[in-house]
Amino acid sequence: MPLIALTGGIASGKSTIARRLEEHGAVVIDADAIVRDVQRPGSEVLERIAAEFGAQVLAPSGELDRAALAAVVFSDAAARERLNAIVHPAVRSESQRRFDAALAAQEDAVVVYDVPLLVEARVDDPWDLIVVAHAPAAVRADRLQRLRGMTAAQAADRIAAQVPDEQRLAIADVVIDTSGSLDDTTAQTDALWRRLVG
Fold first, then answer.
1. 13 known member of a binding site
2. Could you say which of 7, 18, 21, 197 is the most buried, measured as most Cβ atoms within 10 Å of its Cβ?
């Protein structure tokens, strides 16, 4: 079972690559989905987040108010570190459970862990291959504004809150350049799949 880490900065096209690999037959495990699962109402993780950051990060429904939490942590590196100390261990445990389940279900599965914060949290795990989706920061800022409705300042803050591109590129075994057309990204992803199963 090859275990592939797929990472990239915000709006880098990582999800497009993950979807294409899934179409080919990969088992894609989404770190963001795991984060949402471990932060569900009633979870220990959500209780700890509320205790650390206050009730203002909870919606009236009792769910995490992601926008309110983002407003606190994206502009404060120390707050981000406190949040990560709560969330990362739970995500690590649940992701490992899902890797093990994928292997148990299909011994020769290609498992792709779609993980935005690889450099920050999981770079030393025993990956068979690290794939980085890459587009220049200016391209990603434009995508955030056009596709997600952010202001230029919001886009810049989100990009600045992540590790610099150079740190992601330094750990890459494979870089998929997503700055061109969708067809270009798809062709590079298809070539990666052939490498994985060849």
1. yes
2. 7
Structure tokens at 58: 């909870």
The per-residue pLDDT for range 103-133, each reduced to its tens digit, is 999 999 999 999 988 988 888 888 999 999 9
pTM of the model: 0.89
Parent domain of 29:
3-193
- 181 annotated to bind ligand: no
Query: Amino acid letter at 56?
Result: Q
Q: In a 3-state reduction of DSSP, which class is residue 165?
A: helix
Which CATH number belongs to the domain containing residue 46 in this structure? 3.40.50.300
61 marked as binding residue: no
- Give pLDDT tens digits for 186-198: 999 999 999 999 8
Rounded distance, CA 25 to CA 22, Å?
5
What total of structural domains would you count in the chain? 1
Q: Is 43 labelled a binding residue?
A: no
